[in-house]
Amino acid sequence: MATLTNRLKTPLWAWVVITLAAIFFVLPMLAMARFAFQRVPVALLGRNTLFDRWTLDGLVDMFRDPDFRPALWLSLRISVLTVALTLLVMLPTALWVNVQAPRLRSMVETATLLPYVIPPIALVVGAGGAFRDLAPWFLRSDYCLVPFYAVLAMPFTFRSLDTGLRSIDLKTLIEASRSLGAPPTTTLLRVVVPNISSALLGTIFLTITVVLGEFTIASLLLKPTLPLYMSYSQGRNPQGALGLAILLLALTTLLFFAATRLRRRGADRKMIRIGAMP
Amino acid sequence: MSHPKDMYFESVTKTFDATVALENFSLTVRSGELLTLLGPSGCGKTTALRIAAGFERPDTGRVLVGAVDITNQPPHLRQMGMVFQSYSLFPHLSVIDNVTFGLRMKRVASQEQRMRGLRMLELVRMEGLTDRLPHQLSGGQQQRVALARALATQPDVLLLDEPLSALDAKVRAEVRDEIRTLTTRLGTTTVFVTHDQEEALGISDRICVMNKGIVEQVGSPTEIYDHPRSSFVADFVGELNRIRLGGVDLVVRPEQVILDNCHTADTGGEIVATSFHGSFMRYQVRLDDGQAVTAIAKHTPGSGMRAGTRVTVKIGDEKHERSV
Amino acid sequence: MGLVPFAAFVGLFLIWPAVSLFRLAVRPTRNSNISAMREAVTGSYLDSFLYTIKLSFLSALLGAICGTFLTAAVMRVERPAWVRQAVSSFAGVAANLGGIPLAFAFLAALGTQGLVTKALSWFGIDLIGAGFTISNFAGITLVYLYFQIPLMFLVTLPAFEGLRPTWREAAANLGAGPTRYWRHIGLPILAPALLGGFLLLFANAFSAYATAYALSSGGARLIPVQIRFFLQGNTITGKDNLGYAMAAWMIILMIAVMGAYLLLRKRAEQWQR
Ligand SMILES: Nc1ncnc2c1ncn2[C@@H]1O[C@H](COP(=O)(O)OP(=O)(O)OP(=O)(O)O)[C@@H](O)[C@H]1O
Ligand SMILES: [Mg+2]
User: What is the ipTM for the molecules in this complex?
Assistant: First the structure.
């Protein structure tokens, strides 16, 4: 589109702002990477020592730590279960809203924003009080994190699924499939799912990023997940802890990019950036 | 005969990367007239308008109003009113605030702003809805307000870029007539862009037919229709049959083709399809030698013929089009 | 009907805990005759609230301003098309970043032994001497900006993209140059989105726990960390009512802020049509 602006080139101030932002956002990451992978104290850092003693030892030590594996496995198991629970609850909801009750969409969408009204710290404290008397076994299990993580991921997962469903003509698809005599489960698995596969995959990735980043609830319920392990090992093996933080960040970034990539493929542009929020 | 408010494009050329949008485009818009830019999609109509408004700068050539060269004047200093295809009302301002926005920018006293705004709204018959927000209006109402807003500052030239294309047929005709009466009444010089030839023929004092960034012909609607200067114009404005009868190549308008259902004359054919358009009937005829002809006949009750009817084809008395 | 699983899920794992929280907060206190809800907003606890509000307000304000400028800047970049894409994708990651990794990164950069601290001292700037540490008020605010600015970017980008070129052109036609366009058209149209973004940032900062916790000393005065202090795992502080009350107040504040946010968002969407 021809606009008034595109005749004028990008002004200098815009580049200045973007450059400053880039510095602010990249520098801490660089500093963290240096700390994690270089065994030279900051005080000795200079022109001569800049390339000295870069090493992965901290990270390797961490992988050898007996507590590391259990934390990793716990986080992975919780990821899988959270993904399963999310799909089990949110997919039917999104389908229902798109097929049967479009008028309820905005209500459901607003409801999925509730985790912002009840932040993790309040949620975990309330959950502690709520379940302690009625179902103490629930909070004792490591898997009690699963439903809460599914709740925290709700704002992202619902939007991701809803966007995917909206971008296809769901109603027609379902009616066509029914008229050909397919039973509802076949319709769901053979017709709907393949058509929103990229939205589904995006939802899964977003859920995993939430699980791998969550600290508050695990910390208050004393569940030894990966982020919690990272926090505790900071004292024993700071280099390893920072190295792990970088690995997790890289993984999260990758998953996130994959999710947005996928979303762009299926859906219209306007919906892409549910990235963070409402 | 020049007038201080005539607008001139003088050999304007504009290219975007590889595409030539306007090439050596020269045109005079006479003060007070409604001139239509007509042409197929992508022929440079919008570009011409945007250059007049100052949103694009020509590569070469000039734009003048009277004797003043405005080629390099920034858009907000030009006295141009513009109505866009759609969605140009400011969404956070009420109808009246939209209409008076230009006056506010010109620092007209607020009493007078409101008075003139209300008068403009009256002219477009929107006086009852002054305090609504744009999203509470229908498309036709929004375009009327946009028109009032563009006219409120009494611009030298009113520029309309397909202002009717987002509207449905009935509202379209209504707003079109409104534009015509209003600009005539106020004597506003108007450039109207459309790719709809019927619309162009109906509304214009003069039409400028464009093709690929070049002016094909400028003239009154009847001139353009009756005496097209090129085959492009003839084809684009109105419909044409190109047929060969009795060894002569003919170019005739559908309404000049007369169908008869007695079969005496030598050119016979068969109606293959009909369509009813209310006041007239359209027939697709296949001649016995395989040529296709379109004919239009005025509709009177009981006058219609069915597909499959055998007919003879005659060409009306009016002067035939030259073969071009 | 089809919403039953969803409603049950939300009810059980979100609403019910929240309701229990309020129930626990208002239950009579053992060794005090004023209710925990009252006590949580008096004296030093009130100071904690005010401190948290001040910090959230400042980080939201700075985040909103910087984020808006970032969006405006990115909107003006059309040529290398990847710039906008890269910034959007990065913002999506950074807005969700928080907690341990973020605290690590800033400690490595601006801590006493940080890379940037050291680099600045080469240029003769003594950050620590100037009273800046990563865990005081200014430091925490700066760390929070790392996720606040990207969040603002994500919220305002659709609003900026929703500014139609024809509005700018129509304004120019009616005699408004760039400055007057922004003053009368651009900013007023963006206003709901910008204000909504600010509210969202405020809520975001107020409820941030992990980052505050990881920055230890300075974060200790923030309400989320205080709540944990009173309700810490096994320790009996005898003041757990107070923790519940603080969390309850937090939810009340969030309801107000997010409610206003939703109203503004609705407004902005109405105009976008
Ligand atoms: N900003 C631009 N960048 C690149 N090419 C452009 C730009 N604006 C117009 N063009 C090209 O210039 C030519 C003329 O465009 P213009 O918009 O003037 O056509 P138009 O006659 O208004 O067509 P339509 O009836 O479809 O609106 C087209 O080939 C178009 O692709
Ligand atoms: Mg056009």
Answer: 0.86
